[in-house]
């Protein structure tokens, strides 16, 4: 009988979207591998900051970010159209930056599409470090970062 290291794995393309169990197994394998190289990195909680309607307390906008190996990755930012240009986006981003600095992150990174807010992020001191080209059906995507100095 061959040694397990000599056995070839079965290559299977799943017929449907992966189940939660399949996704979690692949993620667990990756996290186990990563832990050998990043055990020194502190795992911090994710971050959410919301904008609420003052009358209904309904969430009408906000920011959601996750801990990514000593960086804060801002996944989602949305300010309602009626409130844009009134400083709410800046307040959301400033608060996220304040918390990221307090947690001693290296910096913040995010991505944005060409129809979204790249100029806004550049104005806040972010710099572009990557781009995915688009076509007539696919928007261009930009990757931006803000590195905190080690003052």
Please characterize this protein's 3D structure.
Helices cover 26% and strands 28% of the residues. The protein is α+β, with helices and mostly antiparallel strands. It has a six-stranded mixed beta sheet with strand order 1-2-3-4-6-5. A hairpin with a 3-residue loop joins β2 (59-67) and β3 (71-78). The longest helix has 19 residues, at 20-38. It is extended.
Quick summary of this structure?
The protein has 151 residues and is of the alpha+beta class. The protein has helices spanning 20-38, 88-102, 118-123, and strands spanning 47-52, 59-67, 71-78, 107-113, 127-132, 141-147. Strands 1-2-3-4-6-5 form a 6-stranded mixed β-sheet.
The parts where pLDDT drops under 50 for at least 5 residues are none
Specify Rg, calculated over alpha carbons.
20 Å
> Strand arrangement, largest sheet?
1-2-3-4-6-5
Main sheet characteristics? 6 strands, mixed
What percent of residues adopt helix (DSSP H or I)?
Answer: 25-40%
Query: How many DSSP E strands?
Result: 6
Counted by DSSP, the helix tally is 3
| SSE-based structural type | alpha+beta
């Amino acid at each position: 009988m061959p040694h397990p290291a000599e056995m070839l794995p079965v290559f299977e393309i799943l017929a449907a979207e992966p189940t939660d169990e399949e996704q979690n197994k692949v993620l667990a394998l990756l996290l186990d591998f990563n832990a050998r190289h990043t055990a020194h990195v502190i795992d911090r909680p994710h971050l959410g900051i919301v904008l609420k309607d003052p009358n209904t307390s309904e969430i009408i906008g906000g920011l959601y970010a996750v801990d990514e190996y000593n960086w804060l990755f801002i996944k989602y930012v949305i300010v309602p159209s009626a409130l844009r240009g009134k400083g709410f986006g800046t307040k959301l981003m400033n608060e996220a930056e304040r918390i990221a600095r307090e947690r001693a992150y290296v910096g913040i990174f995010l991505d944005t599409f060409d129809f979204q807010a790249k100029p806004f992020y550049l104005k806040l001191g972010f710099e572009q470090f990557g781009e995915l080209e688009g076509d007539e059906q696919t928007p261009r995507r930009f990757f931006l970062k803000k590195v905190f100095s080690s003052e």
